[in-house]
Amino acid sequence: MSEHISAVTDASFEQDVKSASRSQPVLVDFWAEWCGPCRMIAPILDQVAAENVGKLKIVKLNVDENPQTPASLGIRGIPTLILFKDGQPAATQVGAVHKAQLTAFVTPHLNNVA
């Protein structure tokens, strides 16, 4: 995991994602170690996180180690990316995406921070 991406758990999800998304959008990557597409998008998430420091927080939640949160959000496949804004899911992307697709997915939700 890069310096710009942190891990969250079922126990920390409320504070690290829902509460944090009130000040800036939070993109949650629901993933698992055995998931090939999850590993494919990891470097893309690192790039997007580095390019959007202060505008977007990116976190990862391992679905095998933290089954409660994905179940409560109705996640059926991984990788699933959910962007939280103001404590609520604002957008969802399922499956691996290219950097251009990920950028297009998050940009409309970013706060206009210089």
TrEMBL record:
Disulphide linkage map: C35-C38
UniProt keywords, alphabetically: Disulfide bond, Electron transport, Redox-active center, Transport
Keyword Ribosomal protein carried by entry: no
A single GO molecular function term of this UniProt record: protein-disulfide reductase activity
Pfam families: Thioredoxin
Boundaries of every Thioredoxin domain copy: 1-111
UniProt site positions, description: Deprotonates C-terminal active site Cys: D29
InterPro entries: Thioredoxin (IPR005746), Thioredoxin-like_sf (IPR036249), Thioredoxin_CS (IPR017937), Thioredoxin_domain (IPR013766)
Feature type site, description Contributes to redox potential value: G36, P37
One Gene Ontology CC term in the entry: cytosol
Catalytic residue positions: C35, C38
Stored PROSITE patterns: THIOREDOXIN_1, THIOREDOXIN_2
GO BP field: cell redox homeostasis
Coiled coil: none
UniProt record similarity statement: Belongs to the thioredoxin family.
Annotated protein name in UniProt: Thioredoxin
